[in-house]
Write a structure and sequence with these properties.
mainly beta; 8 strands; elongated; binds zinc ion
Length: 90
């Protein structure tokens, strides 16, 4: 799962096939196909969230614990092949 992060407003938005943007409108993005996303906005960052990690975490959540299970996420490098950067926002 790929997420769009805006360093200006701090929003994290799940990318989908329809264009989605952060609340301050500085960045936006969408899935082009199952693998490729395109983002607009010089400061747009794309995060990856490991779906298996989320599923495993769901089985470990315990309301008696102060902190829930750790899940795996990463930031895509700007030259990543599955991220197309369109530059400035239109
Ligand atoms: Zn923003």
């Amino acid at each position: 799962m790929k997420l769009l992060f805006c360093p200006d407003c701090g929003d994290v938005v799940q990318l989908r096939s329809a264009i989605r943007s952060c609340s301050c409108k500085a960045v936006e993005g969408r899935y082009v196909n199952d693998q490729l996303v395109e983002v607009t906005g010089e400061r747009a960052e794309v995060l990856g969230m490991d779906s298996y990690s989320i599923q495993a975490g769901l089985t470990l959540v315990d309301v008696s614990e102060k902190r829930g299970p750790t899940i795996v996420a990463w930031m895509f490098p700007h030259g990543a092949e599955h991220v197309r950067r369109l530059g400035r926002k239109r």
